[in-house]
Specification:
The chain is of the alpha+beta class. It is built from 11 helices and 5 strands; from the N terminus they run ααββααβααββααααα. It folds into 2 domains: 169 residues, 2-Layer Sandwich (Beta-Lactamase); 48 residues, Arc Repressor Mutant, subunit A, CATH 1.10.10. 52% of the residues lie in helices and 13% in strands.
């Protein structure tokens, strides 16, 4: 019999995760961990991303809305997940429809609510010294997590960190010709960096300014940063000095 949510320990959560990911390939694990987070917490959906040069790499999501919210954060360069990764501490946005949370991330809040999220809680994955990514949880109604919810969320984030960093490579990676299980999940990230290089050459600007231009174009045309990068790489979009 499972312990009640408020009384789960890290060992309880670890056992649940171990059972949930048994017999899965590494590429299937992140989405399954997100689905398990939804089962363990009073939230509507979850996603997890790795932190990399200000461009979060989405590893998995429990549903299309969670995936959309993660992509919005990556495209805009703002949101609770990016702040949690930067600060290395949880960031709670209990009401994205009004008040301080809507003002703090005005464009993200609008896009997130349009996607179906009304609240979002982002927890860093890692330890006090190094944040490797975030676990992003959303609710379809404004909500403030209880102390019990937060304790469980911290347990989940901690065990998820260990699970992600311990994913096997070995025969699975060798069979695919990959050096790492992450290589198949980071293609958008690589394409964005290649596109940034092309924009730098076209405009004569630094990498941060090139990324800002790419994000601006993506937002203005309702695209993700990844899809906008592919347009640049395919020479369907060229940037010109203003």
């Amino acid at each position: 019999m499972e312990p009640p949510p408020g009384r789960r320990t890290s060992l309880d959560v670890a056992a649940l995760i171990r059972d949930a990911v048994r017999n899965l390939t590494p590429e299937e694990v992140p989405a399954r961990l997100c689905a398990l987070a939804v089962d363990l917490l009073p939230v509507s959906g979850a996603s997890m991303s790795l932190r990399s040069d200000g461009l979060p790499v989405r590893l998995g999501a429990s549903d299309a809305t969670a995936a959309r919210i993660a992509d919005v954060q990556g495209t805009l360069g703002e949101g609770p997940g990016l702040d949690a990764a930067s600060a290395g501490r949880p960031v709670l946005a209990c009401d994205l429809t009004s008040g301080g949370d809507a003002v703090r991330w005005p464009v993200f809040a609008q896009q997130a609510t349009e996607a179906g999220a009304r609240a979002m809680y982002s927890l860093p994955l890692g330890d006090a010294a190094v944040c490797v990514g975030t676990l992003d949880l959303y609710c379809d109604v404004p909500a403030e997590p209880t102390g019990s919810d937060l304790r469980t969320a911290h347990l989940v984030a901690g065990v998820v960190t260990v699970a992600l960093m311990s994913l096997p490579r070995g025969e699975w990676a060798a069979a695919r010709g990959d050096d790492s299980w992450l290589s198949t999940l980071a293609s958008d990230h690589d394409e964005i960096h290649q596109a940034i290089g092309m924009i730098m050459a076209q405009l004569g600007v630094c990498a941060d300014d090139a990324l800002a231009r790419l994000r601006g174009y993506a937002f203005a045309h309702s695209r993700t940063a990844g899809s906008a990068a592919r347009e640049v790489l395919a020479h369907r979009k060229r940037f010109h000095p203003e």
